[in-house]
Queue: 2 jobs
Job 1
Amino acid sequence: MSLKEDKIMLSHGSGGRMMHQLIEELFVKNFKNSILEEQTDAAILQVGSTEIAFTTDSFVIDPLFFPGGNIGKLAVCGTVNDLAVSGAEPLYLSVSFILEEGFSMRELELIVESLAAEAKNAGVQIVTGDTKVVNKGKCDKLFINTAGIGRMKHENRSIARAQNIHPGDLILINGTIGDHGIAVMNARESFQFKASIESDCACLNRLIAEVLEKASVKFMRDPTRGGVATVLNELADKIHFGIEIEESALPVNKGVMAMCEVLGFDPLHVANEGKVILVVGVEEGEMILEILKNNPLGTQSAIIGRVVEDHPGKVVLKNETGGRRIIDSLSGDQLPRIC
Amino acid sequence: MKYIDEYRKKDLILSLAEKLRQVSKREIVLMEVCGGHTMAIHRFGLTSLLPPTIRLISGPGCPVCVSSQQFIDTAMAYSKIPGVIITTYGDLIRVPGSSTSLEKERANGSDVRIVYSVLESLEIAREHPDKRVVFLGIGFETTAPLTAAAILQAQKEQIPNFFVLSAHKIMPPVMKALVAEGVKIDGFIAPGHVSAITGTAIYNDLVTVCGLGVVISGFEPVDMMQSVLMLTEQIESGQPAVEVQYQRVVQKDGNLIAQKILEEVFEFRDDTWRGLGMIPKSGLGIRESLSAFDAERQFTVEVPASTEPKGCICGQILRGLKTPVECPLFAKKCTPSDPVGACMVSGEGTCATYFKYRS
């Protein structure tokens, strides 16, 4: 066992390098198989003559309710999006609850109603589940685990694998970055910022289906934990080309920007729950941008960068004054600055 | 965004760069002593806009980086005392001490909590009267008044379980120490938020005794370029002075209320800076009259003499003698995810900044 730490630390779960290392050196190493090794958001399985996408996710968010959503809505969106960005049509979900003794029945009802409403909205059915209650103090109010199954269209099979990407391809996103992470943090901590920042939490399957109907996409991923920076770094690493991002093209809400300035955060590292990064051929870029912009979940879509031959494996951000800097994955939790 | 956009205007930055090229004749070295300035210089790629005659170096301006290993080890020792809650600003939890870090101690069962403000520590103390809450006070004249205010509040409310381990430091003595040590510096870019508290007079000695100019600067690219220009003009004309570039925030006399609170709670004491050693009267210790809130007086722990990590050149980097790329560990054995020295931990540390903005 080559893992350096002898205890699990919070950084092992923050979507950055330490988590990556844990997955590689413990989970993948032990569970070794060709499907897992693809390490896509959803596993693609051949069942008879049908291909299905299969994914799982757990939700442990604090607070359970935040501007723009709650843990129930988040559970559906997170699972549906993992299937959708893999190019699959989401169909069925499972939902399991781990409940803390003493948790409010009213709050549970609200969360379950949200789950149902969001599932209906996304066109998926919740078809199985499980319930466990643990002693008070053994979990924090409520944890949710989900699994999701979707139908894979064969022509979308290459999307998750990022196989056909070449220098010149464009990188798009369907709107502002960092809203979810900052909204949740603002709700959790007692900053008393008056900014009305809402989580972008949304199911993207219909938006993505619309794009895939009319155009071809070379790669998609939802930039959740670890933010846009982490997704782009994983992509650059995989395709052995460089990625160049224009700082001025990045859509960021004013409130999010202000809070990031105050706390010393980089919005590129902040989580999103209703965003998808797309890599598309240069000839289709403008057309796909139009499709995205005409959808309510994509009005602020933008072309934020491109794939380049230079600096293979690295993501470089260009600012307006000509400065260039490497954008790394997050190496642990993002920490607020001191002064 | 107001106060941001107008100070990031490309045209303005480029015209300041052009003016600098006209004004600058001599080869000069300017030191900034604030992590925020280090960040701004690299984030906005300002060095590439400067004429070759001007070299910027980073000094000991990151509060996490200058905190001594002894301080980290002491905090770690407190964290192992049953019933103690350690509260700290975020960056500090990853700083490696002699053998471990607060982050690792937390995984081992210590109660270590990140707070955004010292007032949250007070709240934790109120909520847990059965526990002893220790706040790790780090930072310069900017954060020290907040710690001081919290101590006074704890005294007023008679909160007996709130303590501060102070590693607060002040800026001018270390700047003078660097000059006395012979580090080649032609002028200082001074942190705007320090002077927002202290006013401008704290740097007068640097002009009268050391003959060096000081420009108190804001943190946006236009601020930084203008400050470099102001310092360059001082040096070219041979007229060093204390000038304020950051006029939208800094007043000559500073924040008198904050100064009064500082005076009431803290007294100057000799203090150890990481990599720089002991600097006389450079730290802020809690006054005897408030010893009930002073963790150092209220807790007895044994902390073995600390050793600096092998191969780490944080000390020379903090003195501006070397840049991170000259360190054999930089970006190899020492990275933000696995830091060897403190300068790689804090987001405003010189090594972390070089790592983040390397290209």
Job 2
Amino acid sequence: MGAALRTEYRKLVTTRLWWVLLLAMVGYMAFIAPIMAFVVTQGGDMGTVPGGEGGGPLPPDAIVRTVYTIAVTLGYTFPLVVGTLAVTTEFRHQTITPTLLAEPRRSVVLGAKLLAGAVLGLVFGVVGTATVAGAGALVVSLAGQPTYLDLASTWRVLALSAVALALWAVVGVGFGSVLTNQVAAIVVILAFTQFLEPLLRFGLAATSWGDGIARFFPGAAAEALSGGSLYAEMGATQLLSPLQGAAVLIGYALLFAAIGRFTTFRRDIT
Amino acid sequence: MATTKPLPSHDRVIAVSHLSKTFGPVRAVDDLTFEVHPGRVTGFLGPNGAGKTTTLRMLLGLVRPTSGTATIGGRPYHRLPRPLRTVGAALEASSFHPGRTALDHLRTYAPQVGVPDARASEVLDLVGLGGAADRRVGGFSLGMRQRLALATTLLGDPPVLLLDEPANGLDPEGIRWLRVFLRALAAEGRTVLVSSHVLSEVEQTVDDVVIIARGRLVHASPLDDLVRLARPQVRVVSPDAAGLTALLARGGWTRAGDPDATGHAVDLVDVDAATVGAAAFAAGLELHELSTRNPGLEGLFLDMVATPAAPTHPEVAA
């Protein structure tokens, strides 16, 4: 397993994609976090959602919950895509053949990919969260408000945000092993994360029964893990506890990986 | 090059036994049995679609056989402890990430082979790609990809090599280089299996041939035996079977293969048509046919792999 892990790590870092995506994530976070910080510190109205309790200025500690977790709320697509591509590129470029020649035990290959995905995901999580915290805190302090960066609870949120993003990459590896067609996988990811899940979460929140379902969506679970979310502040969804959120997210990763193991990784490689 | 581990020679034998693979309605490999021995270069020959690649992929554990076994040193591929230390395989020249450099491609697999990174540079030099080590594979020609694929197989200095169409895309100079290289690997006691759909491409490289067509074994022998079969033959047909037999006995000529049931027609080798014709004339033997066939090695190969007029396997005839 050690050798397989080192090989997976080298596969990831010897192509340009990972740092291109990381750079894109940093750029996006550096752009969105100050905007969010500005809106929150100016006591902006976050809008009202039917059934939600939103509306009116947010309480001060909302800075922590909304701004510092923005990487989990809006930036998770990057680690998710990186994890997915770790599998789909192998099929796209047929490198799955030398991969399985080097390690014919296919469970070991998949396991190494999941673990390597977690490590690279953590890099995305730390860098993405740091960008958000840095850019966000700068705007908050310029507005003359407390950044809350002196509180241990804030650092806990930041750490959990990084962990949530790392888990997103693992979910990506699992998803990629189910849907190995790279173009299809990316289209599905974008459609689900940018459109379907937000829409469903708002829609379900409007019903009396939907909230219990929406909190088990992967996006909601990740936000639960980091302990706060823009959506939750907007009153869209009640979140699970952080631990439950982590469990749900890991559950998605393992479920996908298990399906991938018994479909993609069982087939003949021709 | 590092020295080959002193594996007992039976650990280098590739054995395919009653191997079959069905893809949907297509029987890609059909009850195939053959062995490949160390210290020799074996040509695995057959037209496109004969089942060569599928057979290699079953040997390498990438495709699950419908029935039968394919082993290396008596073990299926997935049971080999460090497979890349035992078997080096190059299946197609396109199994590279185009954005990765040649050296990074090799270094990627080095941990699983269990060799230091320096070995990656070593094998690149070995295949003449040392100068292109830091270039991305996406910009490589087909010939360079073939060399990189070969370099990958050599990472673990394996005693068994399986190469699928390694001469594809090589220029004549490259083919010559490959020939010398493969001969040298076999001379070190390695088992070298090289597939090709053109016999002439490997004719000067191989010691043994395994020829398949439509998934079935057509011929397996040392190349010399195949060459012998490809000698010019003189066909003699006479209505007088007894007279023909007597003529043959007097001439002391060698028959090629078995006589046909009637005894009216024979094929002879090591004799020319003029000699046979003169002897028949002198003996007053009536001849209905006296002809020379010189198929050559390639012609013989094409005859062997040609689709039969009456297909024995209707399911693949379509």
